[in-house]
Design a protein that fits this description.
It contains 10 helices and 10 strands. It is α/β, with parallel strands linked by helices. A 10-stranded mixed beta sheet has the order 1-8-2-7-9-10-3-6-4-5, sandwiched between helices. Helix 6 crosses helix 7 and helix 7 packs antiparallel against helix 8. The longest helix is centred in the last third of the chain and has 13 residues. The protein starts with a strand and ends with a strand.
Amino acid sequence: MHVNYGYLLAGARAAAGLAVIIDVFRAFSCTPLMFSLGLKKSILVSEPRQALRLKQHHQDYILVGEVGGLPIEGFDLGNSPSEILNQRPSYFSGKTAVQRTSSGVQGALAALEIADEVVVASYNVARATARYILSKQPAQVSLVAMGWDMKERAPEDDWCARYIAHLLGAGEYNHNQAMREIVFNNTAQRFLSADEPRFPSEDPVLCLQRDVYGCALGVKRENTSVVIRKTEIS
């Protein structure tokens, strides 16, 4: 198994073999959390208007996302794990979410055009993702760190990629060093230092928890939609 790294949109567009699209802050920390709360599936869309159009035909769909990190008018929830966690226990049970984000979702859609298979990941599902990859034994794995808004690399995504590679037996990982670089970087400080309710300080706490959920998250085309579902690990 050959493991290589990619970054930002260019990395997603060049992803070969089994592509792992990593977005720790916050898209793919939100997704496994919603599944743990009973979500059935998540549909990925590139533009807010696509999500709003789906909502017109499916009133029970839950629209989750952001543009520039900020909540979208007409959406049910922002791209925030703390906001998701704060919903009533039955809110996601048996439901379908529609996710639109500026980085992770765009990367997953781009990678699907070229890669043999796509999964999405964060620290929350890193070990489950590695277990899934090891069960598949692909010839090539592309770990793609999507960064902030696909414009600048972000240490939380870079280090999560290194953690998954380490779990695959393809490199070293130092969690103390990772947390030091992540927590004091401006991507985390957007949440931790700002008095801005749209960037909740609770979000990094939830996003940086390792190996919380035991499912990998596979991305596939289903008719005209791109859908994330929990993937069985053999």
